[in-house]
Amino acid sequence: MSDKIAFSLFDGSLTVTWYGIFVTTGIILAYFLYLYLANKRNIDIDFSLELFIWVVLLAIICCRLFYVVPRKEYYPIDSWDALMRFLGLTKDGLAGLTIIGGIFGGAMGILFCVLRYKKYSYAKVADCVVLCVFLGQIIGRWGNFANQELYGQIITNPALQKWPFAVFIDSDGMWHQALYIYEGFFNLIGLIIGLLLFFRYKKLKNFTISLYYVFWYGLVRGTLEFFKIEHKNFPGTEIGVVQVIAYSACIVAFVLMVLNQKGVIRFQSRIYNEAGDSLKLLAEYDKKTVDGIIIAGKTYYESYGEEVSPAFRPAGDYTLAERQMRAVIFGRPTKRGN
Q1: Coil, strand, or helix at residue 285?
Q2: Which of 112, 155, 259, 299 is deepest in the core (most CB within 10 A)?
Q3: Domain count of the fold of the chain
Q4: pLDDT > 90: what percent of the chain?
Q5: Is the pTM of this model over 0.85?
């Protein structure tokens, strides 16, 4: 695609690029997927809207910083215009983003909202978000096609000089490996597996899907770095910076994912501190019985039937008696009939 401009407004004073259209489309569709997944996890819409704003904002900022900081020789901050270019606030826009930075930024956005509202656990929210990141990346990568970037080695075999194996680059008049297609394809596989885990595997513990995303994307991104023509190396070596980060994250995430599923480590609190989670969920956690707990003068099964899941208040609103009750539920299981 030789023309990066999709259309112009106001007699050419405002231009809209294909890159921006693809990235924005990816963000919007990812948000709609998040709303669907969040609804399945009983996360309310008000929280989701603020989460969307903070995650996208911090992700974009970190995407930009992770791109320009390792390339500070190309983005010096020695004047006002240079600072604007560093921040991506010139007419060229955010020409240069690193997705790995966006992952860190998005993680900080989730943490900020979770700490601000204190309604949902970080693990629960993150498991919904990361699957949407897969979708956003798949669509957003087509922006690299529009900008004729993220391509690999030259392809000399005429049989492979066609889409989706290769992309023609105008700047050198050669066919190159279409890495954006390769990454999008493997991320699509990753998304399908993640959705199957989300909906089908009921024994999956909170945060396992988040760790799965880091594992999968680290493996894909680290492997594709072998084929990139331009990548940042550690000074005096041929070792790629992004490759080391990606593979390290992949290995650590895989180990943590296994330990989390086996219960060796725990990313989700043993006590559900979330508004919207019912007393029934509290009682059944870890399969501990609470038949003898007295609530409002009645036993647990008299107060709340099998099909009733009343909303529970935030942890900060509990009375002393309720806090003691929760301690009994998770500390000393009672016997039926006591």
Answers
A1: helix
A2: 155
A3: 1
A4: 41
A5: no
